Amino acid sequence: MHTEPEEEEAGAATAAEEEEKAVEERAWEDAVGVSDQLRAGTEARRIHEQARQAQRDQRDQSKREEGQNFADEDKHEKLVIDIHSDKDSASMNVFPSPLPSTHPPEDLLFDSIPLSNGFLKLSVSPLSAGCRAILMLMREEGQTADVTEVDIMRGETHTSEFSLLNAKKDVPVLHLVARQADEEDYILTETSAILRFLCEFFPCCLHWYPRDLRQRAKVDEYLEWHGRHVKQSITAIIAAMTCTRDVSLLSSMSTQFMDAIATMDKHWISDASGYLCGPSPCIADLVAIAELETVELLSPDYSKFNKFSR
């Protein structure tokens, strides 16, 4: 038989449990709401860019019909390989292509890259921060590539066809198509590796990855630190919101993310330039910008970080 104090204690414990459960449910509802906003924002952006791309394609087609082209001032031509492929067939055509002379549009979405020269191919997803960083570099320098959007939400990275490109089944993937019979195609994965490769492959991109040994080492140092702190915490936050529904993990990873921002503000961002690793922007800045885009809808408070928020 329960005594009155025991019943009161049991009632208080039950009330405390119910309150704790209600707090968790409210926190989860907030997280789900932000997750839905993330998905909706991505889909709206995709639809908007598809419409813009259709307009660009129509404009380019009109110019081609009028006999115009996009060659540089001297209208140099080079021989390139264009690979057209679908699920059922693939064909290869060799044709002369003009060197690009104009910079691409200023927006930072994947399908605004100029028409490809058929030599360099990129498999990307707009949901991937690493892919966004790579495409920012390409656009900033007006370089071209065949860009294929991979729908990671529908499991397209797990198809047998994609596995031939990347056995790790993720994006981004760089595919350098062989132009000679005695050459082999070249496949490269991982964001940092691809960014470094592109800076060497396109001479105009060299300033994004400093030639000075000490400056370059600082860029490499940041990229290593970024992956273990900024990227790791953001990945865990998104997973907690969309997959595991783990409120405690969401809270701890949010704290870890803000700690990483504090470190960026104090130790990485230059007082003089406002860039991460020196007097001018580099691939480290592109990686950071692309990564932080992922948490924009969470509206993190950067106001107490002087250099970061300016």
TrEMBL record:
Source taxon at top rank: Eukaryota
Compositional bias ranges of the Acidic residues kind: 1-22
InterPro entries tied to this protein: Glutathione-S-Trfase_C_sf, Glutathione_S-Trfase_N, GST_Theta, Thioredoxin-like_sf
PANTHER family registered for this protein in UniProt: GH16740P-RELATED, PTHR43917
Position of the signal peptide: none
Stretches for region Disordered: 1-76
Protein name: GST N-terminal domain-containing protein
GO biological process: glutathione metabolic process
Cellular compartments per GO CC: cytoplasm
Stretches with biased composition (Basic and acidic residues): 42-76
GO molecular function list: glutathione transferase activity
Residue ranges of every copy of the GST N-terminal domain listed in the record: 118-206
Organism: Guillardia theta (strain CCMP2712) (Cryptophyte)
